[in-house]
Amino acid sequence: MSSTKEQYATTYYKEPGPKLDKESPFESMMERFRFAAEILNLDEGMFQYLASPVKQVIVSIPVVMDDGRIEVFEGYRVIHDNVLGPSKGGIRYAPDVNLDEVKALASWMTWKCAVVNVPFGGAKGGVRVDPKKLSYSELERLTRRYTANLLEVFGPDRDIPAPDMNTNEQIMAWIMDTYSMNSLRTETAVVTGKPIILGGSQGRKEATGRGVVTVTLAALSKLGIMPNRANVAVQGFGNVGSVSAELMYEQGAKVVAVSDISGGYFNKKGLDIPEMISYMRNNSNTLEGYADAEKLTNEELLEIDCDVLIPAAKEDQISRHNAENIKAKIISEGANGPVTANADAILEKNGIMVIPDILANAGGVTVSYFEWVQDRQGYFWTEERVNRRLNRMMRTAFDNLYKVSEEYNITLRQAAYVYAINKVAATLKMRGIYA
Ligand code: NAD
User: Does residue 105 have its Cβ closer than 6 Å to ligand 1?
Assistant: First the structure.
């Protein structure tokens, strides 16, 4: 270990954040952040600046329940950074949400926005609640009071929430309405992921999967593989996985395996993805019982012989325990954190190109940016225009990172962090520190 590295490890990064497993997505992200900071020779002050959130807010949210009792929930909003512009990031409702998790996810958003060149900083929010235990009207009151408590944080020019785990279009609509009522005008641009009739964008729902496919095609072309000669496996068949599988299928690729929580489905001649999507929609959103394929486990799916593997289900799927068995040439991270930092080196050694999550699944935040732009213009684009601009931004981001990876002889993941940190640090240097 070089002395610089030791310095970073011991001096620069004093607050290790959440006490999570070594292979947790946050620890993995911090390891990659430290590595990139070292490549960039970032000075200590800058490192500390970028490792610390700008603002962390905890609010108590009293809610009058349907039976008349008052229950108090805890809510969070963390702004990691706002150097590039207003901060952006989702709000999650879950019983185990905590400040450390929200802090980690907020910094993740900073790097993601910087990688795709949207003029946003990073943020994240959460409420510690099990939304399944709340009635519809309790959920509405909780959302409105959480918003009311954060009126000074949110704003189209300040901080712009979006949906995340267990939050949806309706919750975004309530946030927009509460904020608008308090500012005495309709402010659609204060949140993204809204229903289309409230100023949402065409193409937003498919945006993440579409972005995954754009960068996957760019990677295939670097390896000289035609899409119609590529074999693809997709883990997860929800929003991101099913759209990715369908668009790869439309490109002529052979999607040989897909999976969901019910397990994996394999056909070496290629699966009929449109048929599987309609099967799932008519079957309570699960592939359970789909008969026109061989069954696999989710673990087996990850290890099948294919050109492209798209993990689009959950974090920590490829770790040091199975990385050696991965046969894909390209891993395109639809999910957040599906590959652990410990697996990175093994995949690199085996020559597998990993398109990192902060690029691969950034199509969602890119179209969120388009939604915000359209709301502010009061002029709405066709789906065709949204998709064209999304493809362009994702393709440019891929090319930028590819160039950095060649320049420094590093992986695409390392290049993504180098690019993002360099961009935020350079902007901060120009702006200077306000005193
Ligand atoms: P989703 O809930 O729509 O779908 C998740 C899918 O994964 C489902 O098919 C589910 O059955 C499957 N699944 C769950 N556990 C599994 C397991 N153990 N093994 C295999 N499959 C399993 O979720 P989504 O919106 O598609 O998100 C998937 C991932 O992509 C998450 O990591 C999410 O954070 C990330 N992501 C989503 C978006 C977005 O816009 N939706 C944007 C960026 C990142």
Answer: no
Fold match, 5-189 / 207-355: yes
From 206, 207, 139, 203, select the one nearest 173 (Cα to Cα): 139
Ligand 1 atom 35, closest CA: 335
C-alpha span between 398 and 87 (Å, rounded): 23
171, two tokens: 């919750």
pLDDT of residue 23: 61
Tens digit of pLDDT for each residue in 173-204? Answer: 999 999 999 999 999 999 999 999 999 999 99
Pick the CATH number of 5-189 from 3.40.50.2000, 3.30.40.10, 3.40.50.1970, 3.40.50.10860: 3.40.50.10860
Q: Which two tokens stand for residue 189?
A: 């641009």
Fold held by 207-355: Rossmann fold (3.40.50)
Length of the chain: 435
Confirm or reject: Cβ of 260 under 6 Å from ligand 1: yes
What ranges do the domains of the chain cover?
Answer: 5-189, 207-355
Interval 84-101: pLDDT, tens: 999 999 999 999 999 999
Q: Is the beta carbon of 298 within 6 A of some atom in ligand 1?
A: yes
